[in-house]
Amino acid sequence: MTAEAPRGAEAPPELVQLLTPEGERVEHPDYDIDLTPEEIRGLYRDLVLVRRVDLEAVALQRQGELGLWASLLGQEAAQIGSGRALAETDMAFPTYREHGVAWCRGVDPVNLLGLFRGVNHGGWDPAEHNFHLYTIVIGSQTLHAVGYAMGIQRDSAEAATIVYFGDGATSQGDVNESFIWASVFNAPVVFFCQNNQWAISEPLEKQSRIPLYRRASGFGFPGVRVDGNDVFACLAVTRKALADARSGQGPVLIEAFTYRMGAHTTSDDPTRYRVASELEAWKLKDPIERVRAYMFKNQIADQDFFDAVDAEADELGRDVRKRCLELPDPGPLAIFDHVYAEPHRLMDEERAQFAAYLEGFEG
Amino acid sequence: MTTLTLGKALNEGMRKAMEDDPKVLIMGEDVGKLGGVFRVTDGLQKDFGEQRVIDTPLAESGIIGTAIGLALRGYRPVCEIQFDGFVFPAADQIITQLAKMPLRSLGKVKLPVVVRIPCGGGIGAVEHHSESPEAYFTHTGGLRVVACSNPVDAYTMIQQAIRCDDPVVFFEPKRRYWEKAEVDTSADAAGWTPFDQAQVVRPGTDLTLLAYGPMVKTSLEAAAAAEEDGRSVEVIDLRSLNPLDIERVEESVRRTGRCVVVHEAPVYNGFGAEVAARVTERCFYNLEAPVLRVGGPSTPYPPSKLEDHYLPDLDRVLDAVDRAFAF
Fold first, then answer.
1. Is A242 within 8 Å of chain B by CB?
2. If A177 and its partner were Cys, which of A124, B62, B127, B171 is the partner (CB 3.0–4.6 Å)?
3. Cβ-defined contact of B69 to A346 (cutoff 8 Å)
4. Is the CB of B65 less than 8 angstroms away from the CB of A346?
5. What is the pLDDT of residues A107-137, one digit of tens each?
6. Which of B23, B29, B72 to mutate to test the interface with A (most CBs of A within 10 A)?
7. CA dist list (Å): B184 to B58, B163, B176
8. Cβ-based neighbour number of residue A218 at 10 Å
């Protein structure tokens, strides 16, 4: 593929797809899914709401309220489909872009903004939501997910972990080590790679000469490529992978073939490294539009429903904005909090010294 | 009382910790059937099974990364890094994840992971098998760093490290693995010295020698030799490098007026620099001489035929003692 050719303009043949970009339902011999109209409306609502949260966060960053934001635009189906496949007892390990998965796990979106606003480095309780903290170092969390899965094995629990990472992360040593660990210990872990085609400015061909899902075979477990813009397919494929993992059949690598519509983060400028035609080609595969078309055609929802979801999204956007601006700045001595779980004399000493220094400015 | 080598004392300490808490796991390369290349985990897999004593693939980052995941699930993994120079592939997981994740969670996550590192030289090994990487880890907020120097501490400190809710980097002086001492394995843990405290291992009045790990024994020998010259040298085993028990050090140096820090690691930017700076800050008006440091040159660890020149020995320590008295 040359830099000029629109990436992913044609769907690769091995892609699992249940809903075409035109909103036509298709069958797949290995993956099927039977969703009620209510479930489909629920998925659509999720997709629209997380896109709205994302847009609001981008706007907040542009207005100087967030230091940075990693947009999920274009990856909503991969995240909602996989996120809604999780059972309550499953544990998810995200990177820093899994706002849609966080939504599915019940994490307040404002908690995600805290990290990007700089009031903390995370701050939600992973155990409360079974959704781990965002991990910024690329690929580190894949090993955590495997270790957690090894704990599930030792507990003889009926659960699995899912770990999210991008195409660029597949070049990391930790990701490859996690594949080895998961394979030799037969750990109940689903590797969910969102191949959004770009690792900042580096295209996929700088990471791999083979399709990413095929990496799994070299490590001894199955890999599958799914249309990452098809929420039905992402749900079906992830549901099956998690069920297999929970029932002792070991790890699975899912490559969700998708596209990051925006910048890597608000700090970069994709027009420097990719062509406009590529973006245009992917716009035709929009994860929300195809569900909407399907719902219209099959009378799963009427205009009132879509209007209501849009109104809910606007309200959510306003709420997120308002509460983001209300996030209190931490006090200066918070630097020393939570560094250690047990009393630590150096922290005590430095905290006391800094407190005394600050008190010198008072009165 | 039982006579134990330092290596066996660690083994007994881990065994006790595993008996006391079913969540304690041992993991690393060759820790199972082989019992570790130094046999420190000898027999543990036989008695506790492969689910609790885990022979891992050969990848250090993977050992620490999966230990973090196991700790998140409520386990207390004790990881063995086979040799000091092999910790660097795991440094990313230790520094960016293990040390920082509790803070990232605002205290909601605890990571009681112990990273055991056989450290230091003196065994005639090849490259990367004799290093002293403690300064990398003492420089990292969120980690505790401790070093044992004798069988009694090995037995107690490893159990304290495993019980601690913070991540602990645990240095073991590999050339002291075969040193023996009487260990009271029936003593109540409540009476043990807390593992973040330094210990006066030889009292004295004229100079304070500060050491940890393999250099404690060398420093004790130096103190004994100095006594023949009529000098009363106090030796403190620092034991904990992060946090440093500066109060105990300060109390000693205020009395003696002289201080020498001894370690195997390169002196430049080494842990001794931190100790010297803190002692100077706290004891400036009590000092009869500048705080001196004894350690390795600022070179990579040399081939083993040169290590006797590299490693501080009795004479190098005594030379520093002489210099401290010459001011």
1. no
2. B62
3. no
4. no
5. 999 999 999 999 999 979 999 999 999 999 9
6. B72
7. 36, 19, 19
8. 12
Distance CA B18, CA B87 (A): 24
Residue A137 has its nearest CB partner, among B68, B96, B164, at B96
The three-point CA angle A18-A22-A25 to 5° equals: 30
Cα–Cα distance for residue pair A127/A139, rounded to 1 Å: 21
Q: Which of A105, A144, A215, A264 is catalytic?
A: A264
Interface probe, candidates A128, A143, A178, chain B, greatest B C-beta count within 10 A? A143
A273 included as an active-site residue? yes
pLDDT tens track for B229-243: 999 999 999 999 999
Cβ–Cβ under 8 Å, residues B142 and B167: yes
The predicted structure's pLDDT at residue A7: 57
What is the reported pTM? 0.96
Which among B73, B93, B102 has CB closest to A152?
A: B73
- Give pLDDT tens digits along chain B (327 positions): 899 999 999 999 999 999 999 999 999 999 999 999 999 999 999 999 999 999 999 999 999 999 999 999 999 999 999 999 999 999 999 999 999 999 999 999 999 999 999 999 999 999 999 999 999 999 999 999 999 999 999 999 999 999 999 999 999 999 999 999 999 999 999 999 999 999 999 999 999 999 999 999 999 999 999 999 999 999 999 999 999 999 999 999 999 999 999 999 999 999 999 999 999 999 999 999 999 999 999 999 999 999 999 999 999 999 999 999 999
- In sequence order, the β-bridge partners of residue B233 are B207
Do B69 and A148 lie within an 8 Å CB cutoff?
yes
From the CB of residue A299, how many other CB atoms can be counted at a distance below 10 Å? Answer: 8
Do the Cβ atoms of B57 and A147 come within 8 Å?
A: no
Q: Which chain B residues touch A174 with a CB distance below 8 Å?
A: 61-62, 65, 92-93
Residue A14 pLDDT: 86
| CA A64 to the chain's CA centroid | 24
Nearest residue of B to residue A350, measured between CA atoms: B243
Q: How many Å lie between the alpha carbon of A117 and the closest alpha carbon of chain B?
A: 14
- H helix count then E strand count, chain B: 12, 14
Residue A20 burial (CB count, 10 A):
16
Is residue A195 within a helix (H) or strand (E), and if so which, with residue range?
Answer: strand A189-195
Q: What is the DSSP letter of B3?
A: E
Write out the E strands in B81-164: 114-119, 144-147
- Chain B residues whose CB is inside 8 A of the A144 CB are 65-66, 68-69, 72, 97
Q: Return the residue in B106, B160, B240 with the most chain A beta carbons within 10 A, the one to mutate for interface testing.
A: B106
- Residues B218 and B312 sit within 8 Å (Cβ to Cβ): yes
In the chain, the amino acid numbered B169 is: V
Yes or no, beta carbons of A151 and B72 under 8 Å apart: yes
Nearest to B57 among A126, A150, A180 (CB): A180
Chain A residue with the nearest C-alpha to that of B75: A151
Dist. CA A315–CA A319, nearest whole Å = 6
